[in-house]
Amino acid sequence: MGLTRRLIAAALALGLGGATAPAGGASAPPMIRPLAGVRTWVVYYGAEASAGPDLARFDVVVLDPHGHPPLPVIKRHGAVVLTYVSLGEVNTSHPEYAAIKDEPWVLAPNPSWPDARRLDVRAEAYRRWLLDRVVPAALAGPVNGLFLDTADIEEIRTVARWGVLDGVTTNPTLFGKTKGMTYDEVLKVICGITSGPVSAEVVADDVEGMLREGRHFAKLADNIYVKVPMSENGLEAMARFRAEGIRTNCTLIFSANQGLLAAKAGASLLSPFVGRLDDINEEGMTVIRELAEIVAIHELETEVLTASVRHPRHVTDAALAGSHIATVPFKVFQQMVRHPLTDKGIVQFRSDWDKARKALAANEGKAPEDVKPTEARV
Ligand code: E4P
Prior knowledge:
This protein is of the alpha/beta class. The protein folds into four domains: 1-84, no CATH class; 88-139, no CATH class; 142-337, TIM Barrel (Alpha-Beta Barrel); 340-370. Helix content is 44%, strand content 17%. The strands form three sheets. An eight-stranded parallel barrel has the order 7-8-9-10-11-12-13-14, surrounded by eight helices. The protein has a three-stranded parallel β-sheet with strand order 1-2-3. Helix 9 packs across helix 10 (232-243), helix 10 runs parallel beside helix 11 and helix 11 packs across helix 13. 29% of the residues are buried. Bound molecules: erythose-4-phosphate (E4P). Residues 149, 169, 171, 173, 251, 271, 273, 275-276, 307-308, 327 line the site of erythose-4-phosphate. Erythose-4-phosphate binds at residues 149, 169, 171, 173, 251, 271, 273, 275-276, 307-308, 327.
């Protein structure tokens, strides 16, 4: 896409380019108004970290969704950060280009922008690709929260119903506990339950094998993060996945240095295993604290995901140590819900209400079950 059209796309994202609607009237189209207080804005296509402080001088910064300077530097100065998507054109370096290049709606190269191919905007399949893959990928930002550490579909459905599920991590051991489905099938079902990151672990130990397995997983759903073990081959694979736009979760991290290397290789998530360190009489939480601090100090674009969680105290300590995410087994999720004083309090309130209801029923000559909590008067 030429610069002018990119600026127009950005302007649309900002709401700066729309026509003003006539005031009032039921049929008036929705009014598009500029962002309040925005005086200066910039579009930056590069990824140089050193550009951060300069960009931060603008009220609004529009960035390339696939490569840009670390966001914390820009945001710290209060700039609003937006991204753009190109319409009617795709660059051949786009992470999804290989998957779509033979589609009938991918047309001839743009003569004035040879790295780009034109797209047939009238094609329904193009519209779907744009809405289902390009836009969600552009909007996907850093994740925070609680993941479920399981491949058990019922456990995932339960925690999703509680409204607290931000993602899921699986591994070969957890998949081995499931029955009747292939790993692919399990992953597809999980990705249908949560739109948060779902980790799918490779088992190959050579780079090409990891890439083959990871590319396969990445095609199953948009929210797959390929889980790659920390190793020399793992680092190389993660660097290549990053170049292809495939997000990774580096697993089996047991030291801050391993985490630092994985961050530099481009892992989106770093998984230090606290429980397994505690098991060998080391302090798992020290690695979480050190790594979270390194990520913050150096504004690395990655997140610390505390794994191998054994009990609720691990979750609290990880959050206090600055871990962005903890992946929690179902049993520990249940333990987090419960507290003996909560259980005791529920029993007490129930019994007090039953007593009050009986008294009200006696006063009003009703059966106790006819006294409704919402109508009761004392
Ligand atoms: C998650 O990503 C890890 O694979 C998992 O938390 C490991 O936990 P474990 O040490 O209990 O096997």
